[in-house]
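User: Before I run my own analysis I want an independent prediction to cross-check against. Here's the chain; please return only the structure tokens and, at the end, one sentence I can use as a sanity check.
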Amino acid sequence: MEWNLDININDKLYLRDPKTSDLGKNILRNGIIMIEEIGIEDFTFKKLAKEMNTTESSIYRYFENKQMLLLYVLSWYWQWLEYLVVFKSNNIENSEKKVDILLDVLLLNTKDYIDGGPIVDKRILHMLVIKESSKSYLNHDVTKFNEYGFYKPYKALCSRIAGIFKEINPEYPYSRNLASTVLLMSRNLYFFMQNLPSLTDFTETKDISNTKTFLKDTIYKSLKVLS
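Assistant: Structure tokens:
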């Protein structure tokens, strides 16, 4: 994949933009793969440097710490999802069709991606987001990070989703609540389905289509509109 989609990342997240060099791109690619495999808790720049056959100090030239690397990747991902939602729903008037597109994007139930970003299988990136994204804001630094604007892409995606819900029912007073809930559920349900299946109704058929059906049901019943 090439860097065909140019996404602007908050410059407080990095010391040197990794998009500007081959080493930086390799840090992103290998970092994503390793974080997805072992989790952010066990991930270190020392391990990443060993995997890349480079020095730990070379990675620190790009990112202050692993939390900034994770936030950088997530910032790119949320903006990528918003681009997909806009691109795939462009010129579509039917609101129900927009909801279908939205859920397919959130669940990565689509093959025609927009190229760009880390040169890595987007499904690996998607799994990293499912496993690790909540850790980026469920921490003691959330207020400070929010002041720095690190969560702006996540908020923008939620706002985009809420806008779709407002199209369906302009009188619904909780469109942002529903948007953030659906965005969170799209990740958590998959994780539960694969790892804690008794928390779901999908213990036998761990199919992503079940998650989509449930989310549609939640959306339309919340909006009090029959699909």
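Sanity check: The chain has one domain: 11-223.
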